[in-house]
Amino acid sequence: MKRLTCEMCGSTDLIKENGVFVCQSCGCKYSVEEAKKMMVEGTVEVTGTVSVDNQKKIANLQELAQRAREAGDSKTAARYYSQLLLEDPSDWAANFYSVYYDAHNIRLNEIAYAANRVGGILDTVFRLIREEQDKKIAAIMEEKKDADPITRQILEETCKVETRTTYINICADVKKFCYLLIDNALNLGNAGAALNAMIPAYHMLIQSGDVVIKYFGNYEIALKVYSSVGWNLLDDLAKTCRSSLAYELRNLVDSRIAQAQRLAQEEATRKEQQRLEEERKKQQERNDKYWSEHTEEKQALEQAGAVLTAKIETLTTECNQKVAELKNEKEKVPGADEISHLAAQIIQLRQEHKSLGFFKMKEKKMLTERMEELEKLSNQKKEIRMARQNEIQSKITDVSNAYLSQIRPFQDELDSIHAELTKNR
């Protein structure tokens, strides 16, 4: 028989507590059956339980990694997360924290390397988080396919909130690591070296904002990330060593912030439009439900509205006919042809007057007197015709007002019925 040995940490200090064997070094727990398998010498065939045992091992590694993480033990955390990554390559926490905590254990001249390592894994980590969220939501929707839409929506939003907390925490860890790297960079003793080490650290921070937008479209969080770049220190170092790197980084961040702000505004507008449309649909459903329960009231209102509409249409038709007749009469008021003839005569006389020579003073005078007579006559006829047209126009106004006074009470009543039929319930 072999001696009991913890599969997680290799310790042989296992004690039986409450029916299970507990490793005194790492806290990993084993059932009696698992302990028996561990004590059998030679190769043991365990058909059909490999998956279960692997899940147990993964759970133990997750617990040990979390303990080390909470204790601030970066070396141990990196070791356990690396082991977890081998067991479950799709575990986002293992992908991130195996690199994240390993990057904490570096020398001063490896700051840029550490930042690039963490920044390089972020896209994979956020993709895995998004895939995990989508799988959870799909499973929930399948499990709750018979539930009402509101329940399903609440469950989906709960899942998304949990995911949001996860990636916000990752962004916070990246930010914390960025500032740690920057503090270490300041110990390099040379402004140029410090700046060259800090730039990758800030690029890592920017990358965390980029993947938040890429996989979750959360512009608010991304803006906070972009805005956390410390410009004062960068500018001071850039001036000291006369480097353009800081200004290039500023341009990059400014463009990211401007784009995120624009997209955030577009997203807010889209959500507001969506909210209004959903509210409109809900209100319409409430209205439809009300009228489905008050059919007699609706029918009575619609019938009354139809009667009023018919009355209004009849009066409107009569009014339009009378107004059309008066307008026709107005256009046919006598005198238009005579006035046109006089105007033609006047034009002809003006041409004759213009063609006369300088010494034809007598003839010019006669033509002038004749034109004045014709213009006076034309004006008189125009005034007579206009006076008659004004009389007819006055009749048109009186007829229109008379019919409007008859239509208005019907229209007011019809508007009231329409308001009653369309008001929100």
Quote the average pLDDT: 87
How large a portion of the residues is in β-strands, by DSSP E?
under 5%
The string of secondary-structure elements, in order, is: EEEHHHHHHHHHHHHH
- Main-sheet strand order equals 1-2-3
Radius of gyration: 45 Å
Number of helices: 13
| Sheet of most strands | 3 strands, antiparallel
Strand elements, count: 3
Class based on secondary structure composition and strand pairing: mainly alpha
- The low-confidence parts are 40-52
N-to-C terminal Cα separation, in Å? 79 Å
Q: Shape from CA axes?
A: elongated
Instruction: Give the helix proportion (percent range).
Output: over 70%
Give a short synopsis of this structure:
The protein is mostly helical and 425 residues long. It has helices spanning 32-39, 50-71, 74-87, 92-102, 111-143, 149-185, 191-216, 219-226, 231-241, 245-293, 295-331, 336-355, 361-422; strands at 14-17, 20-23, 29-30.
Topology of this structure?
Blueprint: E1 14-17, E2 20-23, E3 29-30, H1 32-39, H2 50-71, H3 74-87, H4 92-102, H5 111-143, H6 149-185, H7 191-216, H8 219-226, H9 231-241, H10 245-293, H11 295-331, H12 336-355, H13 361-422
Antiparallel strand pairs: 1-2, 2-3
Helix pairs in contact: 2-3, 3-4, 4-5, 5-6, 5-7, 6-7, 7-8, 7-9, 7-10, 8-10, 9-10, 11-13, 12-13
